[in-house]
Amino acid sequence: MSRSAELFGSRWGLVLATLGMAVGTGNIWRFPRIAATNGGGSFLVAWVVFLLLWSVPLMIVEFSFGKRARKGVIGAFVAHGGPGMAWMGAWAALCASAIGAYYAVVSGWCLRYLAAAVTGGLRGEGAGEALWRSFNSTPAAMITQVLALGICVSVVWFGVRGIERVAKVLIPTLFVLVVVLALRAVTLPGAVKGLEFLFTIDWQLLAEPTIWLQALTQNAWDTGAGWGLIVTYAIYMRMREDVSLNAFLIGFGNNSVSLLAGIMVLCTVFAINPQAQSEIVGAGNEGLTFIWMPALFDAMPGGGFFMVLFFLALSFAAITSLISMLELATRVLIDLGLRRKPALLGFAAVALLAGVPSALKLEVFQNQDWVWGVGLMVSGLFFAIAAARYGLERLRTEVVNGDGCDLPIGRWWVVLVGIVVPIEAVVLIVWWLVAAYRDDPANWLAPFDTYNVGTVLWQWAAALLVLGLANRWLARRTLKEAGR
Amino acid sequence: MSIGAAVTMILITGVVWGGFVALLLRAIRREARKRDHERR
């Protein structure tokens, strides 16, 4: 099959695969925690605002880049920003690939807990915590990391048709699972307290910048906007495919799942163990998901069954996101001249090795999540810069509102991508780094700390140095392959 | 549940879930129209 013949079979294949990319563990394990610790209803207001001020505008940029350039993220930057911007595309590819390396470890954790839930290994007091302590940061976590990567490789091996086939089964099932879990949670006695907590607005909190910054961060991390993953799937759009309606659909679909997950988790917490709610939502992503959720399900009538559904949903969310990260890297390597299968196997081997330290040491995982998570905000900024370089008005009229458009977009999008998104990105990056500096001012520049500023700056500097030196080669190779 | 929380719940779920359903329906209609057009 020729490269140009690799297209999604239908619009729904594209939408479901892209939703699979967007809906990840962050929707289920981060959103409820962040919503609960940042004022519930007040956070939700800001979160909806930033869906429209960050995620959707950047998704439109990404869909346009992929549809017009028909190349991976480096090629898309070269096609829109010129050869001098290849390093920016490579930065986006690096961030998503580095996240993919440790995300395989996370996906492995989900699969391990799914297996334990199915075999009854999470029943009984403290079973979730005992499994976490005996499994996390041991060679067993490497085995599940390999399993997760193996599953995703077997899907990406078949190209876009493999991705489409899997997404058409997993994503509707994931939606059903999350709806069933949310319905179960809201029908528990006392669950209404969880709803009240989640939806009560404290108007004074809306004057707090932290609420808005956390809401923007959540949108930046859990919708997948500005990561380069949408560019990758948009390469396989049919020619007369819509851009803007699909972007809105994925943004709202992703946040719909987050809201369901928030209702599910908080109603379960308030119904089963309301006294420990601060401790539960303050336990971190892993603590909430792998220690507290099994304990809460265990105390719930029919909890064993719903525990299986919960970890099944989490595993589906993780696997479909990991698939998109593998495809992004594979596609970049294809653009650089490799064939799909060697590119995929080569990247999977590198991702496996790069993920091993995260599998064996939780601090390494947390460090990588911090460094490349903030790096994604730089990625979002780069997308806005490349789009502005190409001409936002030109992109809007030629591509967004061009052939196949189902939802014409006005000039407001030009203002958002040209002015608002860059401001949001700079404010976010500065805020996160200043917060990290305040946490540990004495060691702020130390390179090997888990969460400080120095670890971010040193790793970014090393990456940018390599990418800057490789810029000309990356641009030349990508253009050469496109010319064939 | 307080009235304020109930109103917020209706508004937030209405915007997010209602928005998603409305966009999905629009996409389904537009896709059907495109298919009809292609068949002709």
Structure description:
The complex is a heterodimer of chains A (484) and B (40). Chain A has 484 residues and is mainly alpha-helical. Chain A has one domain (3-483): Amino acid/polyamine transporter I (Up-down Bundle), CATH 1.20.1740.10. Chain A contains 20 helices and no strands. Chain A has helices at residues 11-22, 25-37, 41-69, 73-81, 86-118, 127-135, 139-156, 159-186, 191-199, 209-222, 229-234, 244-272, 277-281, 284-298, 303-335, 340-360, 362-390, 392-400, 412-439, 453-483. In chain A, helix 9 (191-199) packs across helix 12 and helix 17 crosses helix 20 (453-483). Chain B has one domain. Chain B is built from 1 helix and no strands. Classes of the chains: A mainly alpha (484), B mainly alpha (40). The A-B interface holds A 11, 15, 41, 44-45, 48, 192, 195-196, 198-201, 240, 242, 245-246, 248-249, 252-253, 255-256, 259, 404, 406-407 and B 1-2, 4-6, 8-9, 12-13, 15-17, 19-20, 23-24, 26-27, 30-31, 34.
Protein topology:
The complex is a heterodimer of chains A (484) and B (40).
Chain A: H1 11-22, H2 25-37, H3 41-69, H4 73-81, H5 86-118, H6 127-135, H7 139-156, H8 159-186, H9 191-199, H10 209-222, H11 229-234, H12 244-272, H13 277-281, H14 284-298, H15 303-335, H16 340-360, H17 362-390, H18 392-400, H19 412-439, H20 453-483
Helix pairs in contact in A: 1-8, 1-12, 1-15, 2-10, 2-12, 2-14, 3-4, 3-10, 3-12, 3-17, 3-19, 4-5, 5-7, 5-15, 5-16, 5-17, 5-20, 6-14, 7-15, 7-16, 8-12, 8-15, 9-12, 14-15, 15-16, 16-17, 17-19, 17-20
Chain B: H1 3-39
What's the gist of this structure?
The complex is a heterodimer of chains A (484) and B (40). With 484 residues, chain A is mainly alpha-helical. Chain A has one domain (3-483): Amino acid/polyamine transporter I (Up-down Bundle).
Key features of this structure:
heterodimer, A: 484 residues, mainly alpha, Amino acid/polyamine transporter I, 20 helices, globular, B: 40 residues, 1 helix, 0% strand
